[in-house]
Write a structure and sequence with these properties.
Elements lengths: L9 E6 L39 E3 L13 H10 L16 E6 L4 H13 L4 E4 L13 H14 L2 E5 L45 E7 L18 H7 L35 E5 L2 E3 L8 E3 L2 H19 L5 H11 L20 H8 L1 E5 L6 E5 L2 E9 L4 E7 L5 E2 L4 E2 L6 E7 L7 E7 L6 E11 L6 E4 L3 E6 L1
Parallel strand pairs: 1-3, 1-4, 2-3, 4-5, 5-6, 6-7, 11-20
Antiparallel strand pairs: 8-9, 10-12, 12-17, 13-16, 13-18, 14-15, 18-19, 18-20
Helix pairs in contact: 1-5, 5-7, 6-7
Length: about 475
């Protein structure tokens, strides 16, 4: 309704391939133009991949990305399928384009697809392939975490499935019991830490997705449970022979410790990060031209989340992984047992509509849309708003994190709001920023910062309020 369809956004789908002849997908294929239209056995663009016209098959080391099953076609269809078959648009972001990374059985194939996505300029990457403790060999946790850290630094937004092993969560005989029920890389830390994640370690670069039934709205029994552990002693308890060469001690930042006799389990890492529908209809079938059928599991839910992200990214192309993590954690519909993020339900059900409003008004302090930041005295602090282009915007400070309705907009920083920056966002939407020199701080105190944007002439037809950032000033 606002005109955002994922236009201009390229997603790398690391999966089984794609049915290029499906009518609902044939117009949504990303194409590597310098490679030409037809295979010729030549690396025309000198990128190291021969005949990578629509992507690459990292399992067979060839340009053949045809889906000889159905899984890759289904995941792609959830994101970008148009209405060419029967007038029904099955894709969440049909204006986007899908780059295909066909995978084989090795986890290194997914790593290669991610590297290819970065090389060829994909905006986002998703995979409904995950790697579980009961695989032989078990996952290389250090490599998955290292890659996620690097894709975060590179600005690549990623989602990944988390397994369908929820029914085995509490089985002490299973190596996929809690806290390893969520598979890798969906179990790595997200790029934004929810305030309920009071055990704070490093951030990383993957949104792990759980599933709820589209027909009932209830959490799927097979959707995996959290928490996830990033602690080698927890892993060695369930996998005594795990090769520690595949574990980095620097990743021991989210321990669970639930296997220690007499000790209550710790927090670990809250997982999954968000839940999305499973059981939706999507293009399917190898070699079919218009077959549509139901899909399932977190394999279905994961591209649902990515489709929403593609809508947000088309609304605001400068969104970072940290921004997207914040949007998911702050705008998803809370449906769990406690307020905010929790194990099993994550931050709640993905909400495309609420998310696009937040995407059009993102506030960052020192480059972060974080829940809180620490600012030392005698230093420089940056404040910025990024969102709907060519709009009047205000960045303000308040004394509390509290909602107050001013009629035209709701403040999240209380009633005593002090504007500190007023200006226009500019043609790119991210031009309004200011640097403030902080004087000497003699004793700690906190203020809250938020941005407000006049989008009454824009796609939302209203004033928008951003995320709130607490600023802790310390000597």
């Amino acid at each position: 309704a606002m005109g955002f369809t994922g236009q201009g956004i390229v997603v790398m789908n690391a999966d089984q391939g794609i049915n290029r002849n499906h009518r609902a997908l044939e117009n949504q294929l990303w194409r590597n133009v310098p490679e030409g239209w037809f295979p010729n056995g030549i690396d025309d663009d000198n990128n190291g991949f021969v005949d990578d016209i629509y992507g690459y098959n990292f399992g067979t080391n060839s340009g053949d990305v045809e889906d000889y099953g159905s899984h890759g076609t289904q995941t792609a269809g959830v994101m970008v399928a148009d209405d060419s078959c029967n007038g029904i648009t099955y894709g969440i972001a049909p204006g986007g384009r899908v780059m295909t990374g066909a995978l084989g059985s090795l986890e290194s194939h997914q790593w290669a697809a991610i590297q290819y996505a970065l090389l060829m300029g994909a905006d986002v990457q998703t995979s409904s392939y995950s790697y579980k403790n009961n695989f032989l060999p078990p996952p290389n946790y250090a490599m998955h975490r290292d890659i996620a850290d690097n894709t975060l630094a590179a600005g690549l937004i990623r989602t990944n499935s988390t397994s369908n092993n929820g029914a085995l969560c509490n089985d002490p005989l299973q190596v996929v019991q809690r806290p390893f029920n969520v598979s890798v890389p969906g179990n790595v830390p997200p790029p934004y830490l929810d305030p309920n994640q009071t055990l704070v370690g490093r951030k990383s670069g993957v949104i792990g997705v759980g599933a709820y039934h589209v027909s009932t709205g209830q959490l799927s029994l097979t959707s995996p449970c959290g928490p996830s552990s990033w602690y080698d002693q927890d892993l060695l308890y369930v996998l005594p022979g795990y090769p520690l060469a595949n574990w980095d001690p620097a990743d021991n930042d989210y321990p669970w410790n639930g296997f220690v006799p007499g000790r209550a389990p710790g927090l670990g890492l809250l997982k999954p990060d968000v839940i999305a529908p499973t059981g939706t209809d999507t293009p399917a079938g190898p070699f079919s031209t218009c077959l549509v059928g139901p899909f399932g599991g977190t394999s279905n839910a994961t591209p649902v989340v990515m489709g929403c992200i593609m809508l947000w990214k088309s609304a605001n192309p400068s969104l970072t992984p940290e921004d997207v993590g914040m949007i998911i954690h702050q705008t998803s519909r809370d449906v769990g047992l406690v307020p905010g993020k929790e194990n099993g339900y994550g931050a709640g059900k993905i909400d495309a509509f609420a998310g696009v409003h937040r995407a059009l008004c993102v506030h960052r302090v020192n480059g972060e849309p974080a829940w809180s930041v620490t600012q030392h005295g005698r230093s420089t602090m940056s404040l910025a708003v990024d969102g709907s282009p060519n709009r009047v915007a205000v960045i303000a400070l308040g004394t509390e994190r509290n909602a107050v309705n001013f009629g035209f907009v709701t403040s999240g920083i209380g009633a005593n709001v002090i504007p500190v920056v007023i200006g226009n966002t500019g043609a790119s939407g991210d031009d309004l920023a200011a640097s403030l020199r902080i004087p000497t701080v003699r004793s700690p105190f906190s203020l809250y910062s938020q941005a407000f944007l006049d989008d009454t002439a824009g796609p939302t037809r209203q004033w928008l309020a951003s995320n709130v950032v607490r600023i802790d000033f310390v000597p």
